[in-house]
Amino acid sequence: MSRTAIATVALALALALPCPADAKLKEGVVATPDNWGAVVGFAPDLAATPEAMTPPGIAKLVERGLKLRTVAYRPIRPSLGYIEATNRHQATAAATGTGPNDIRTRGLSGYVAGLPFPDPESAIEVAWNVQYAYAGDDGVLRFGVHWVSATRGVHRSEKWTWEYLTRAAHRTDLAPLPAWPGMAARGVQYASLAWAEQPYDKTGATALYYRFEDPRDQGGFLYVPSMRRSLKMTFGAPGVPWNQTDMLFEDVRGYSGYPEWMNWNLVGRSTVLAPMHAGAPIGPDAAEEVFDFATPPHWNPAIDWEPRPVYVLEGRPKFWTSPYSRVILYVDAESFLVPIKEGYDRKGRLWKVVINAYDESPDPDRLPPPPALSMAVDLLADHATVFPTHEVRANVGLTPARFTEPELRRLGR
What we know:
The protein is of the alpha+beta class.
């Protein structure tokens, strides 16, 4: 039996195990920095074998030369502000659910801030925790983009800057709490500005878009330097690649679509190897330091993998236009970030493997774990796109005035 088959069988057996009897959050429990993982999730099985902890998608990459450099498990917890908001607003959120074909009805009520569902009991509760996982209230990310062929190596590269109000609403760390009033009035949950720094012929291409509380299309503007004008655009439609890469918009950070856009199934709880304390270098030369561009398939990263408690969440798209028949998210049970995603094509074949690696927070009391790298591997096309981090800052104090069309045009020029 192949390594992939062994890993698949072992993972299936692990998922079939019953949940621990003490896993359910007891009424009145207060979350603290010391007990966060026990209150909101569950402990990893540190006795599991590496084969049992290797998801099928990662096992496929191991067959292609990925080395799983394993390290000891370490807990993760969010900022003091996020913990306080979770305690303050515990039991106020309700996942109202939507029909199997309903993509426009809001499926959450009563949510204010913090983790919506400590110790989630259903698939939709896990999905909402992913939506509102702690990532700070705003941030700046400078990153590289490298298109990598398994046969030719790196054949195209770009540099980008991305600024974002992660929480225009449901804020926990920075005033005003819990939302910017003007954006709340417009129903804006998130705002983003992204622009190309290299290559020269793309410099000035800038995108501004808003994500809304209701599951409507994300709208905004694209500034086109050659036209010297901004165009009104819709962003993040299911199945659309970001910037012609192997990463779909909905793949960003594991899943960036709305929870209402999938039919969810909680496959189970498990322990998998995931890069949540990746030990990856961050900086302008990060790509050359972390990715083995010289050795086929030219995209394997050298990062640390540790046993992580995860919810295994299956999503089936409600959009008939989606290129995915289903996706599997491995949702970290302490942070509710998504370090690993598997995407299956319309024929049911394992098609995409997405990895999001995080480094340790420099200040857990007030800052989230910094994203160290992301990558999307197209197993069927023998191609990948890798995104090394050049610089990352969180909770820097961005305001809504930054996320406007005049700012878009100014940056583009």
